Amino acid sequence: MHSDTLKRPHAGEPAVIRGVQIPPIGVAGILHVPSDAYACVAFAHGSGSSRLSPRNIAVAQALNARGIATLLFDLLTPEEESDRNNVFDIFLLAARLVNAVRWLDGEWQVSPLPLGLFGASTGAAAAIVAAARLGGRVGAIVSRGGRADLAGDALDQVLTPTLLIASGLDYDVIELNKYALARLRGPKALEIIPRAGHLFAEPGALDAVIQHAAAWFERYLDARLETGARALG
Fold first, then answer.
1. What totals of helices (H) and strands (E) does the chain contain, helices first?
2. CA 176 – CA 199 distance, rounded (Å)
3. DSSP 65-125
4. Phi first, then psi: what are they for 202, rounded to 5°?
5. pLDDT tens string for the chain (233 positions)?
């Protein structure tokens, strides 16, 4: 494969936005592939949320504008969500995220692209556990207001560059993120958004999240792509 083909596997193709169903149980998702995408990010939402989370949608749209494809999808079926135990079952959520990545690997528009994971709340722990299971397939992780500490022993296994973003007023979550940060083994960072609450609803707070997340993905996924291009070139 020529390096230009690797860098832009669908150069000249129009942007694609489509509803999808992720096997094996057919949870609903939205795949957005901008023209000339250089990477793909799968989202894992937090408890009580879904693929329609306005905050995750805002982050995804900002990444799309920067040339990153995104997959927003439901981790649970409506029936499963009615059982609160499922909402906090990190290993179940991680398994669904692994299924989504395997599905992406079968989609020609995104399968050649470096992959990132974006997790919020309990979805952050699911992203870390999924990355531990997927090994080198995941090139970067970003957590927004996440409970990365709930990933447990997976924290000690993950070498994937991981950015933890916490709100400045969420003191307990900051401490839990510091604990998780100390256990992560790969490149890592903790960014605290001053004067922001748990939902990052304050003016400028979500914009700050977007800037940090986009910079992290661009740093590690674009570099990962270029490394692969040089190896093939």
1. 9, 8
2. 17
3. HTTEEEEEE-SS-HHHHTSHHHHT-HHHHHHHHHHHHHHHTT-TTTTTS-EEEEEETHHHH
4. -70, 150
5. 323 333 344 455 668 888 999 999 899 999 999 998 999 999 998 766 678 788 899 999 999 999 999 999 999 888 888 888 888 899 999 999 999 999 999 999 999 999 999 999 999 999 999 999 998 999 999 999 999 999 999 999 999 999 999 999 999 999 999 999 999 999 999 999 999 998 899 999 999 999 999 999 999 998 666 554 433 34
- How large is the angle between the packed helices 122-134 and 90-104, nearest 10 degrees? 60
Which helix (H) or strand (E) is 192 found in, with range? strand 188-193
Which of 120, 147, 133 minimizes the C-alpha distance to 53? 120
Closest to 131 in 3D by CA, of 147, 142, 121: 142
Could you tell me the domains of the chain? 3-232 (3.40.50.1820)
Name residue 232's amino acid.
Answer: L
Q: How far apart are the first and last CA of the chain?
A: 8
Q: How many CA atoms lie within 13 A of 45 on its CB side?
A: 24
Q: How many Å apart are CA 39 and CA 218, to the nearest integer?
A: 9
**What is the SS3 assignment for 197-215?**
CCCCCCCCHHHHHHHHHHH
Site of tokens 């996440």: 146
> How far is the C-alpha of 119 from the C-alpha of 154, rounded, in Å?
15
